[in-house]
Amino acid sequence: MALDSKIPSGPMEEKWSKHKMDSKLINPANKRKFTVLVVGSGLAGGAAAATLSELGYNVKCFCYQDSPRRAHSIAAQGGINAAKNYQNDGDSVQRLFYDTIKGGDFRSREANVRRLAEVSVNNNDQCDSQGVP
Ligand SMILES: Cc1cc2nc3c(=O)[nH]c(=O)nc-3n(C[C@H](O)[C@H](O)[C@H](O)COP(=O)(O)OP(=O)(O)OC[C@H]3O[C@@H](n4cnc5c(N)ncnc54)[C@H](O)[C@@H]3O)c2cc1C
Asked: What is the DSSP annotation of 47-73?
């Protein structure tokens, strides 16, 4: 059985931005009519739950540990790479994409890693404003 990871179609650099543009907009007044279930309360689940509820959706965030904070996310301490491209760094989305694929022994899903590299800067800024140490 082949699993369908539902990765958007199109060229690598455009997959996720195209998917974002193709997605239908939801009127703010209708957002409260949707209940979103988030499974897991690490940084990904926690951030998704907080962001979606701020947008007006009803959100239920589930975890199965003694505390919602008991996730891998609480163990990470070394920082997160982002293609910030400070002066003279020579950094870029493509470079972070390549380094991350290589660092993952070429076992990661390329489209998802590309997306990670694309959103890395905003993601770091968001974690910072959420108080992630
Ligand atoms: C020791 C350690 C150090 C790390 N250091 C770094 C670092 O320095 N920099 C870095 O960028 N990354 C680091 N990482 C990796 C990083 O922490 C993870 O990639 C990231 O936190 C994953 O976040 P997440 O929200 O996707 O998953 P998680 O934080 O793992 O959260 C997933 C949550 O889902 C819950 N869950 C799973 N299945 C279910 C279910 N069926 N029902 C309910 N809940 C469920 C889990 O219990 C967990 O709470 C480190 C990881 C570890 C373990």
From this structure: HHHHHHHHTT-EEEEE--SSSTT-SGG
